[in-house]
Every structure is written in structure tokens, then in C-alpha cells.
Amino acid sequence: MSTLITVLKSGGRYDASWVERLARGLRRHAPAFERILCLTDLPLVVEGVERVPLRHDWPAWWAKMEAFRPGLTEGTTLLCDLDTVFTGPADTLAEPGLAAMEDYFHKGRLSSALLRWSGDELAGLYERFAAEPERWMTAGSCGPVPNAVHGDQVVIDHLLRAEGVRPRFFQDIAPDLLDFYDPRRAAHGPVVIFIGESKPDTVRGPVHEAWTGA
Predict the structure, then answer these.
(1) For residue 177, which phi and psi values (nearest 5 degrees)?
(2) 140 exposed, middle or buried (CB, 10 Å; 0-12, 13-18, 19+)?
(3) In Å, how far are 10, 11, 207 from 131, measured between CA atoms?
(4) For 8-24, what is each residue's pLDDT tens digit?
(5) What pLDDT, on a 0 to 100 scale, did the predictor assign at position 201?
(6) Is 76 helix (H, G, I), strand (E, B) or coil?
(7) Which residues of the chain have pLDDT under 50?
(8) Rounded distance, CA 192 to CA 86, Å?
(9) Crossing angle of helices 123-131/152-162, nearest 10°?
(10) Do residues 178 and 191 make contact, with C-beta atoms less than 8 angstroms apart?
(11) pLDDT confidence of residue 127
(12) Is 184 exposed, middle or buried (0-12, 13-18, 19+ CB in 10 A)?
């Protein structure tokens, strides 16, 4: 069974509508995913999405570390950010095999915006983080890294490197799959990734229409 996991942590700009729109886009463009889970601390009710309570009060993006909790899924699992927009066929994301998005700014480093594994394959990430969350949330805990912002993907990249694990990058597996949003053009896809300040709720045109289902 192929499962998509997304994380909705309270206190930010995201709410249930982002989960609903991500799920709608997934059902339309990546039907190979048979299950959608949302890890959240909110009383989420979205059709076709299973709510899974967060166990920890880890702030902001650190809540994404709970996606690796053992026992959540069986088979191919994709962690996907809420601001991802599907505009075309994306079943490639549901194919088996450890993979991640390559960071847009730091070549050779993974991004947790899209990260794929199988079952409990990456459960060790959760276990190591949960054992010492304050340590790992502290900037510098992973030694010298190119990232200006210390976040979950820095820790994930560091821990996997320490184990000698190097996921393949989606950009290499399927060069035409991911498309980074560029306000200078209208057409994007099939999987639109937002970097910087732009988000699906602030843009206009075909990407916004795909996100809202217009």
C-alpha cells in the first residue's frame, strides 16, 4: 500500500483547507496513493484523510520528525509538504525506493519537502531525535552545514549520512517531475514546489487554480 503523510502543526499559516487541497490534488493526479495520513494536533476532519495525533509538542517544522514513527505505515511512504501543488500526473512519487528531493539551494543535500521510504525503514530517525530533541533542535548540532536555517531536513540529512544512507534524488529519477515555482511564468508542473516567500495562497494563475480546484 502506498501512503502519503503530511503534517499540520497548529500555530502557523496552515489549516485544514491546506490538507483538503493537497488531498484533492493527490487524488486527481497521483491516484496510486491509496492512503493519506495527516499528523496533527488539531481536530482535523477532512474526507479521505486519516487524522493521526501528534505525540510530541515539537515546534514548527520539527513536528515532521514524527512522520518516521514506527508502525505508521506499511509499504511505500511519501512525506509531502502542505504547500505542494499537483498540476499533472505524479504517480511516479508512489513507486518504491528510498528517495528525496534535492535541496534547491544546496546541491547534494536532501530536502524533506518530499521524502520517500518504505514502512519502518527510517524509524531510526524518529527514535534518535525523540531521545534527544533539544540537542537536535539546537543549531550546530549537526556540525558545519551549508544551510542558513537549522531545521528538520538538516538533521535528517546528517543522521542519514552518519549511517551511510544516501537517498536517490527525485530530480535524477524523474527529471521532469518536480517544478520549482517561478512567478515569471504561468505554466508549472506536474509537481510544483514552493521556495522562498511565494506560497499557493498568494500566487495567481494556473497554479493557484490547480491548488483551489477551480
Answers:
(1) -85, -50
(2) exposed
(3) 23, 24, 40
(4) 999 999 999 999 999 99
(5) 95
(6) strand
(7) none
(8) 6
(9) 110
(10) yes
(11) 98
(12) exposed
State pTM to two decimals.
Answer: 0.97
Give the number of other Cβ atoms within 10 Å of residue 141's Cβ.
Answer: 15
* pLDDT computed for residue 214 by the predictor: 63
Spatial neighbors of 112 by CB under 8 A, at least 6 apart, are: 61, 64, 79, 81, 100, 152, 153, 156
- Residue 65 DSSP one-character state: G
Separation of CA 9 from chain center: 13
- Supply the pLDDT for residue 213: 85
Q: Write phi, then psi, for 182 (nearest 5 degrees).
A: -135, 115
Q: Which residues of 30-45 are buried (b: 16+ CB within 10 A; e: fewer)?
A: beebebbbbbbbbebe
Contact 167, 187 (CB under 8 A): no
